[in-house]
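Write out the 3D structure for:
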Amino acid sequence: MAYKIETDPRVLDQIGTLPDDALPELAAVFDLLELVPWSGPPYNAAKPKSPMRAIEFANGRGLVTYLVLDDLDRVDVLSLTWLG
């Protein structure tokens, strides 16, 4: 079963500003989230079972923050941070 990925409109704007070489790595993160969204570490280490997660990409230059909604089989991508 694959999870559906939903992105906040601001995230779509942020994706549009990424350098071309970061896009395949971001796509790989989205592929991972569709299949195993709990693989990212918790956003808050003090709450390890929290559905809010964050995963780095592009050698730590990028960070995707997301929420796992198991009951809806959905992952909501909340923000994308690029440090470039």
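The chain has a mean pLDDT of 96.
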